[in-house]
Design a protein that fits this description.
The complex is a heterodimer. By secondary structure, chain A is mainly beta. Helices cover 0% and strands 49% of the residues of chain A. In chain A, strand 5 and strand 6 form a beta hairpin. The N and C termini of chain A lie far apart (33 Å). The mean pLDDT of chain A is 94. Chain B is mostly beta strands. In chain B, strands 2, 4, 5, 9, 10 and 11 form a six-stranded mixed beta sheet that branches. A five-stranded antiparallel beta sheet of chain B has the order 1-3-8-7-6, with no helix packed on it. Chain B is globular and about 40 Å long. The mean pLDDT of chain B is 92. Classes of the chains: A mainly beta, B mainly beta.
């Protein structure tokens, strides 16, 4: 596709539910990043993939957060046992390499009730 | 101290004026610098990137980088109401090369 796509665009979960957020990067982009953006804040780094390898997951806020990119293309961010503080917009971005400019998807707005 | 700091604003300028947005960063090893524009409810979109000291111009936008002083700025000439948005500064921190730190953004309003 022409750009980064994410699904679903909106997700409402009850506290304690598991959710899975999908990111489809720009074709050929090696690097893929996940960010969490709270209202009125800038995106906060969560994790980074180079192809299928997760090279940095230092930004994941707890062990309830898990990300994978098994074939080096589509990535999934999974949040287990969601909490209200997980409510945010989750942004995915891809780039040709780790130092290049990133292109963002539309984001998934997660609301945990 | 945050890795990347921006004045949250709001910054208001009249249409046709120059808008000046500033950003400072803490890590001297930072390698690359980016400005993103984010409209309310939308995802960030890239405006410019800069790697070397000095100015880089692209249309109405000029990015300025001063590594000695650890700041990067964005000038918007002939500001238009459509430029009203939040502007995010992002820095690729040098120590890992993989982490991009974003500022909290500066809200800009261009008054017709």
């Amino acid at each position: 596709g022409a750009g980064v796509s994410q699904s679903p665009r909106y997700k409402v979960a009850k506290r304690g539910q598991d959710v899975a957020l999908r990111c489809d990067p720009i074709s050929g982009h090696v690097s893929l990043f996940w960010y969490q953006q709270a209202l009125g804040q800038g995106p906060e780094f969560l994790t980074y993939f180079q192809n299928e390898a997760q090279l940095d997951k230092s930004g994941l806020p707890s062990d309830r957060f898990f990300a994978e990119r098994p074939e080096g293309s589509v990535s999934t961010l999974k949040i287990q046992r969601t909490q209200q503080e997980d409510s945010a917009v989750y942004l995915c971005a891809s780039s040709r390499s780790s130092h290049n400019e990133q292109f963002f998807g539309p984001g998934t707005r997660l609301t945990v009730l | 101290q945050k890795e990347v700091e921006q004045n949250s604003g709001p910054l208001s300028v009249p249409e046709g004026a120059i808008a000046s947005l500033n950003c400072t960063y803490s890590d001297r090893g930072s390698q690359s610098f980016f400005w993103y524009r984010q409209y309310s409810g939308k995802s960030p979109e890239l405006i410019m990137f800069i790697y070397s000291n000095g100015d880089k111009e692209d249309g109405r936008f000029t990015a300025q980088l001063n590594k000695a002083s650890q700041y990067v700025s964005l000038l918007i000439r002939d500001s238009q109401p459509s430029d009203s948005a939040t502007y995010l500064c992002a820095v690729n921190i040098g120590r890992t090369g993989n982490q991009f730190y974003f500022g909290t953004g500066t809200s800009l309003t261009v008054i017709p």
